[in-house]
Amino acid sequence: MSVATFAGLDLSTLQELKAAYTKCLLAIANNQSYSVSGRSLSRANLGEVKQTLLEITQAIDQKNGPRAKRVFPDFSRSRGNV
User: Fold this and answer.
1) Residue 42 and residue 8: Cα distance in Å, rounded?
2) What pLDDT, in 10s, does the model give residues 53-62?
3) Which residues does 78 contact at the CB level (< 8 Å), separation at least 6?
4) How far apart are CA 52 and CA 81, in angstroms?
5) Angle at 43 between CA 39 and CA 49, to 5 degrees
6) Residue (of 16, 24, 15) closest to 46 by Cα position
């Protein structure tokens, strides 16, 4: 899968998918299997589940738009004869 796989989904659907895959990841971590969208996943699928969760999170971030970046000035260095 890729982020493009989730591109057409609305934000609420993406958030539901993220919650389902997070539950899946927790179940697998406890040596249990989990079913998402009709697929049974187990420890053997751990890498796939983690990658899908990452892609869903990236798709959510794209839907939310760019985030503001905080910039902090550094006055600790002197700049000549000022």
Assistant:
1) 28
2) 999 999 998 8
3) none
4) 55
5) 55
6) 24
